[in-house]
Each structure stands twice: as C-alpha cells, then as structure tokens.
Amino acid sequence: MNFDFSKNHFELFGIPPLYQIDAIQLEQAYRDIQSQVHPDKFSHLSDAERRLSMQWSTQANEAYQTLRQPLGRARYLLHLNGVELHEETNTAMSPAFLMQQMEWREAIGEARAAKDVPELEHLSGQLRADIQAQQDQLADLLDKDKNYPKAAEIVRELKFMGKLREEINVALEALDA
Amino acid sequence: MALLQIAEPGMSTAPHQHRLAVGIDLGTTNSLVATVRSGMSVVLHDENGRGLLPSVVRYHEDGSADVGYSAQAMQSRDPLNTIVSVKRFMGRGLRDLPEAGSMPYQFVDAPGMLQLKTGAGAKSPVEVSAEILKVLRDRAEKALGGDLVGAVITVPAYFDDAQRQATKDAARLAGLNVLRLLNEPTAAAVAYGLDNAAEGVYAVYDLGGGTFDISILRLSKGVFEVLATNGDSALGGDDFDHRIYCWILEQAKLAGMKPQDARLLLTRAREAKEDLTFHPEVRITAVLDAGEMVDLTLTAETFIDITSGLVNKTLAPTRKALRDAGLAVEDVKGVVMVGGATRMPQVQHAVGRFFRQEPLNNLDPDKVVALGAAIQANVLAGNRSDDDWLLLDVIPLSLGLETMGGLVEKVIQRNSTLPVARAQEFTTYKDGQTAMSIHVVQGERELVSDCRSLAKFELRGIPPMVAGGARIRVTFQVDADGLLSVGAREKSSGVEASVVVKPSYGLSDDEITRMLLTSQENAKDDMAARALREQQVEAGRLIEAIEAALAENGDSLLSTAERAEIDDGMAALRRALEGSNHPLIKEQVESLNHISEMFAARRMNQSVQKALTGHKLEELET
User: Domains in chain A, please, with CATH?
Assistant: First the structure.
C-alpha cells in the first residue's frame, strides 16, 4: 500500500521503462487511471477526496504527456538513468549539424517570404522524415546500446529540429490569417 | 472490458435518493436549463411551456429586474436599462470592446471588468448574468420540487480565465453550487456522442450568438477526449445582425442613432437574418423615434455578400484546431453543428465545403448544449449512471509569465489536458533582494501587451541573500473548470513562505456577500436560513460520502483506532446537525474532512492499483 507520487511515470502506468513502448498499452493504462482518479468522479465527495483527485489526475496527465511524446520519453529515460541534459546551457553541437540547421532556416525563411504554402508543406514533410530517422537511432541508443551520452546528443539535436517544425507551423499559421 | 468494471471510488451500492442537478446553457442570446429525468435529458420549460429564456435583463428604478421575454419586449423602448447579450461583456474591460461606441449602452469602465449604467445603478456583467441564472434556478427548483445540489454551467471553449471566473462568480451570486464549468462544444459532443454511440474523430462547430468555438474530439470506448480547441470569443450571430444594421444605416443614409432607434434596427436586423434562412429576400421596415421611415429589401445574395468575411473568420481557427490536433480534414468522421447561428445556409455551406462532408444537423442546435450539460451534471452529482464515460478536456489558451522586455514565456501550452500543473523556479537577480513580482498572462502572442493579464502579484519576505541565492518555486494549477490558481513557495535557508493568488478580476467572498446583501431580492431572503441550509446540504453530502466509503473498504484500509477517529468525527457532525448553529456545522465539516483525508488517500491509491491490475489481467486474457 505504498503507492504514491514517488512512483515514476513508467511505474504509474505499469509499462517497462523503454523508449520503444506500446502506444496503445500506454493510452489504455492512462485512460484506466483517469477513469479512477479524474475530478469528475469526485465532485460529489469530500474536499479531501476532491483535492487528491485533482493532484492524481494532474499527475497522470503529466506522466502521460511526458511518455507519449518521443522526445519527452527520451528525456525522462535519461533523467531516470542519471543523465541530465542541461538543454538551456549546453548548446554544443557538431559543426555539420549546425550547418544543416542554417540551411533549413534559410529554406524556411525563403518559403515564408514568398508565401509559398506548398513549399512550406514540402519542407514540413522532409523534416518529419529526418526526425523519424533520428528517433530510430535514439531507440537503439536507449534500449539496446544503453549509450546515454550519445542519446543525450541526439535528444539535443531533436530539440532543435522540433524548433524548425514549430517555425514552419508558425509560418503556415501566419499565412492562414 | 468487464474486468475494468471495478467499484468506483466513493460509490456505494446502497440505494440513495436522486440528487437534483441541472445543466445550464448561459447563452449570449438565449439561456436554457435541462435535467436528467428517468434517464432522459430534458429541457425544463417555463409556465408557458417555453424552453428558451432570452438572455435579456431589464432593470427598474427600484432595483428589481425582469428577465426573458418580458424584458426582450421592452428592449427598443427602454434600451439603456435593458441589457442584451451581456455574455459579450463577461470578464471584459472597455478596451476589449472596439464596437462599444455603436452599442446602445452607457458603459462605466471599472477595474478588471466594465459595468453598465442603468436606472438601478451601475451593474456588472456578473450581476446581470446572475439575474438570468436565478430565473433558471427558480424554474428548475419549481419543476423538480427541491433544492438543487448543483449545476453544470457551460462556457464557450475559447473563454479565457477571466471570462470563466466571471461565469462562476455569476453562478455563486445566483445561489448555485457550480459542479463544473463545461465547454459548450464538449457538452454538445456528450449529448450527440451518447445518443448516437459515436466512435472516431468529430469536430464540433459552435457558432452562437456572440461566440465561436471549434473543438476536435476523439470519441472512443466511452472516453470523450478533446484533442484541440480554438475559436473567437467575440464572434457570433450578433455580428451578422450588426452587419445588416450597418447595411441599413448605409442604405437609408442614417447617422447618429438614438439608443432606442439603434436597438429597434438591431432587432429588425436579427429578424431579417432569421427570415433569410427560409426566404430569398426580406423586407425591413421601421419607424424611427423622430418619425423617419425605413423601408428596404435585403436579398439573400446581398446578405451572403456582406457577411462572407464573418463566415471566413471561423475557418482560420478551424484550420488551427485541426493542425494542433495533428489531423487532416479526412480524419474527421463527422461535424456536429451547434448554436442558432449555424442555421444560416451560408454557414452550412462553408462548413460543408471545408470538411468535404454534409454537417450533422440531426439535433436541435439551440438545445444540445444544455442537454449535454445536464447529463454531465447528473453524473457529477453522484447519480450513478450505468454507462460509464469520461470527459477529458483541455485549456484553450496558453498560460505564460512576463519576462524581461515585456516578453511572454509560456508555462502551460494551449490544448493541454486538464487538470494540469506546472512548477517554475525563479531566483533573485540582485544581492539582498527581498521581493519579486510575477505577472501571469494568457494568450498565444509573444508580447505581454498582446495577451490578457490574469494576475500580478508580489512575493515578499524573501530572505536577503546574494543574487541567485533564493529559490522560489511558483506552481500554476489549472483545475477541471479551466481555472487557474497560483501558489508560490520560497525554499531556502529553511524559510518557507507560500501564497495563493486569486486572479485580480475574480470576486472575493466578501464582494460576493456584499452583492448578495445589496441585491434587492436577496435582501428579503433570510440570509442566515440560506447559509444554514447550504451547510446542512454540505454536511449531509459529506456524511453520505464517507459512509459509502467506509462500507466499501473501511475495514480493509483502516486500523481500529483510525476507524474510531472517523466515527467520532461523524458523530460530532451529526450532533452539530441537530442544532441550527451553521458556523459549528461548518467547523465540524472541515474537521471531518481533515480527519478523513488519509482514508481518502488510501482509497485513491487502491483505485489506481486496481485500474492497473484490471488492465494487466485484461492483457493476459487476450
């Protein structure tokens, strides 16, 4: 009966602590837990139960959102294995990667300036493929090789790629308005 | 699935009486109240058999108010004292209303929220809305024959924190216990989804009198999961009226309208809009105060032409919501149309073109929101329903903090599933700094000045240390109503301080009490009797909840001593209930809540365990 907030996210959902997870199993476990702890199930009960329900439900959302996103899951696994990313301060990247980033930015900037929606969508698709390839590599590094320092590097790169994706979305949104 | 059917927390198998709960759609144009009776969600009618209550309030000099049809009938004759579409003013300051100049009201700018000058004094939108809610509460209590346990009040999904807080305050002012603020499109999805056993991704397109929402939901195995929501909380059927009104002024070469003329022509505009749904053209006639005649013919073609900008304005949020949900138009299985303004053929066509399918119109767009809210209210009140379902909704707009240079740093992203919390750590930037100010805003823009300011507060009493020495942890919690509370905690050198901040535009309990006391109707009401009754209801609820919990797993989860302590707490509360000392009852309720906290925690843990165990067993099976 020592089930408490100290359980890690994987334990909360009863799934193995791996990068490659069964998304359907995760989702089902999340839904099962929410249907037990969600505030809607407690609104007629005591203050204490309502407060606990909000905390539990918040925790389940946090855990689910962390684990369902590949990057969030990778960061969390690294954290569990004692590797902190220090993403705000550690921005050292390989020159080749930085070069690539600049090219991406240029291409996005040009397409945005030209209000070229098909080109932006094309770039978005290309980026998605690149991200997928990186994620495949990440799966091996985390689950098979247990090479956490190298995995951390990929995570940092993926974060930059995520920013590019965000940039494309912002550009597309701006062209919508 | 059978293995997942474990006992729900706090639900006893012992029969209990049906708790009276209602769903209220507090609309811009019309409001409704609905309830679940014999398993069916039904709209409650007034003594004349009418379900809709026009959201119109007319104040008299003596402070009393007419609400509904009688007020609506007087809107052209008494425009300054007759408030229509008050929902547009909820949680809004004067600077939020660019069109204020062309409205037939006298506004008073007040801190946080504007007020309207009437013969009965300045009224805040919260007070005006409370008048509407009171009428609906009375209607429900008469129809159901008892006091309400609570109500679910619907709000536009795209309402921000200020608008939600204002709605909740209005309900409290009307003497309603708010079980939940429920997003209108979500309410519609519940009514539609349960009725049609729908599965898959659905879009709810909700164009009401004054607000537009688009929500993308996934319905699967009894879970209603909102994937993304977007909208415009200042766009609705009223704006279509306003376009026709401007067209009339232009065609009839009118300017400088008196309030009663403006109200008359706005009414004619609304009637014309409604008629154009069924006729290719309409004649608009009016006699103005000074005797001028207006006689015009408006064709559907012209109407479509002058309102195409408004229709298009709904499509950008729709695209954004789809993108946020990570879905394409092809993924949407059905489009549920909600809100009276979706009756306009041009809206139907635009939505059909966008989603490449016929929108679903097999439910009454005026009633579906209230019906869904009633279903949710019935469950929240603890009336067990056989079909077990769950709603997972999201926060519509991101929450952020002001950082250097007036920029916003997002703390909680829009479309995060509720409830959600995020903690952020801050530190001092000067030696010996003992205070720090924090500014919370809501919105998607990068500049603080483009977002809505929710709360500004100062953390004081930070122990003086070198720059960067103090560590202040600020927690943002958004509850299932989409409402924010902020807590701050300073953890260093053993000193701990914490504050809980209520956003500045919300009403404090004192203000609510003052409003209740000054309000005409409630001054006559015996306040003490009301307070006592509320405490009795609350105490009864608590005893019932704990008894059910004890019956279910009191023996397995509590030691003899723990059990005795809870029994003593219940006995003390029961003794208090024999008298009529409401502060004492309140005290005993709080004490019992406190005593039972650990029991509640254990029960919660057990539920979670069971959820997982059931899940694993199910897997073994397959």
Answer: 9-68 (1.10.287.110), 95-176 (1.20.1280.20)
Which residues of A lie inside 8 Å of B (Cβ-Cβ)? 1, 3-4, 12-14, 25, 28-29, 31-49, 52-54, 56-58, 61-62, 64-65, 169, 172-173, 176-177
pLDDT computed for residue A106 by the predictor:
93
pLDDT at A31 over 80: yes
In terms of Cα–Cα distance, which of B31, B137, B154 is closest to B84? Answer: B31
CB under 8 Å to B397, separation ≥6 — which residues?
A: B158, B160, B414, B442, B443, B444, B452
Number of domains making up chain B: 4
Domain residues for the domain of B381 are 21-235+314-392
**B376–chain A Cβ distance below 8 A for any pair:** yes
Q: What are phi and psi of B563, to 5 degrees?
A: -60, -40
Q: How large is the angle between the packed helices B582-595 and B597-621, nearest 10 degrees?
A: 50
Do B571 and B466 belong together in one domain? no
Report the relative pairing of strands B150-155 and B21-26 from DSSP bridges: parallel
Residue B497, pLDDT score: 53
B480, B600, B616 member nearest A49 (Cβ): B600
Cis peptide leading into residue B419 (ω within 30°) = yes
User: What number is the ipTM of this complex?
Assistant: 0.83
Using a cut of 0.80, tell me whether the model's pTM lies above it: yes
- Identity of the amino acid at B418: L
